[in-house]
């Protein structure tokens, strides 16, 4: 019998892209299939996220419970992840950033990466750096990487409009085209989202309108990010959307209150730890899965870990 400190632990897995791109956000389709097989080999009970959240709140989650989530709404969620999930008859929740429904389906970090990878750049980066920032040399691979890492960090607290302006400035500076060209990594279209949501076991959840760092913004912006995303998805799908994912896993008390008042039944963050009956239903931690991970070992560790409240007071009302 498990001890009280580990009883009721569950694991919520976090993925982004299922693709052979070889970036930090990617797990290849072949490895994703192996990881899904590892869940079966470990005797895991794969459940819909909302059902798992309810079971955790009641304190009766089945032993070795797992929920699968994929963030952002990349096209490969439909073309690669969902077919593999269907092979195993596993449900999953896909968290969608809805600003891509109204225009080019390229996320800002993908646009920035296109610029960073472009071979024919000037020797010095002197645009989109923010007020008072000094130009940065790009004359070696190390300096180029450091420069664009600094630019990326500077994007996190920006407003949606500020990010759009800086991306446009970088694209002009680099000579690259805006999003929308064939072959570029993109988000799903509205029709593709409807197709995914119609598949058995596949559910869409809200991931904000613009993928902002919510704690960096006032309550009115937080409300817009959550409510506009939910409104768009519910209009598109013709059903309630009850789950939310904090962009970057970042939240504060204000964001949790907004999620509560918005009517979300469950919200997830990051944390790289198991969920448990101690987890607040609006601050459920997840385990990020990367290429090369020994998922079986990580699951064993997670199910054996001592339950923690994940940096948030369970008594929050």
Automatic annotation (TrEMBL):
It is found in: Secreted. Residues 64-317 form the NodB homology domain. Signal peptide: none annotated. One of its GO terms (molecular function) is hydrolase activity, acting on carbon-nitrogen (but not peptide) bonds. GO terms for biological process: carbohydrate metabolic process. It holds the Pfam family Polysacc_deac_1. Keywords: Signal. SUPFAM superfamilies: Glycoside hydrolase/deacetylase. GO terms for cellular component: extracellular region. Its main location: secreted. It comes from the Bacteria. This is Deacetylase. It comes from Lysobacter enzymogenes.
